[in-house]
Prior knowledge:
Elements: H1 12-20, H2 37-52, H3 56-59, H4 64-68, H5 73-102, H6 118-142, H7 160-190, H8 195-208, H9 220-225, H10 227-244, H11 247-266, H12 274-293, H13 297-300
Helix pairs in contact: 2-5, 2-7, 5-7, 6-11, 6-12, 7-8, 7-11, 8-10, 10-11, 10-12
GO molecular function: endopeptidase activity
Protein name: CAAX amino terminal protease family protein
Keywords: Hydrolase, Membrane, Protease, Transmembrane, Transmembrane helix
Amino acid sequence: MHSQQNSPMPDDHSLERSTTAPQTQEPDARPRPRVPLIARCALTAVALFVAALSSVPFALIPGVNNALNGDNPWAALAVTAAATTIMLATYLFLTWALTRFIDGRPARAAGLVLDRRALPAILAGTLLAALITLFSAWLTNAFGLTHATTESTGANPSPWGVVVFEVLLTAYVAQGIGEEFLFRGYLLQSARMRPVPALLLSAAVFAILHLVSSGGQDGIAQRFLYLFPTFAFALLAGALAVHFRSVWAACGIHGGMHVGFNLAVSMGLEMSTPWNWTIEGAIYLFVAVIAIVLIPKITRSQVLDPYV
């Protein structure tokens, strides 16, 4: 999704101000969003829930649930692929709509472009996040904070190919790509802030929405603790996107976290305990801080517009 529409030039008064103001940063010539920032955050949150539920009508089609829960794993995979594709298409459409009609900007402004940066960015993010997630799982087990499961749960009835594709569809198509284009694509540039506050805002809004997630939490305290690794990996996703100038790096971090989670579970490691969330969140936050510190000073001193 790539629009060729250019941002409008600043008016005469803007040009006059830019010649008299201190030359600390380039004037922001972007069109002013049609609603306040808090409303843009709310619209991003609404878009997340709309996209997440967009495959529900598909599930109501007669025969779809039977195929999903039937004995044919390939039929179930086909249903999963169709449902997740509907979700991804909705995520991307809503990202484009917010960028175009709320911010008055082209799709490229939200990173909605498939270019030469995309593949190395998503691969780098995937590798980094998978390693962090696996390392944190190993660390909690090594120090006796969690316990590896050695009991056999029986052979997985699905072929390995089906299992791999299901993990990838869930990690990237259903969640990683679409959610990152909304939060690290649209909201990050729409914040009109310098990099650090923009990254913090995008990660915070994303994390707060996960209060309603079901990840093994027990009680309100654990629900808030669960937000820590979510906030931390979102912060790293945004920082890596700024470095690569590509939302695909953030997609890699998000999807790679899910890939690492599934790999750890397949190894018998516990992944849904308060210790997991604490250690994993701390490591993600540590790496995110390093990534933010490494953002060039000239970039950190300017209003963030990472994808144009």
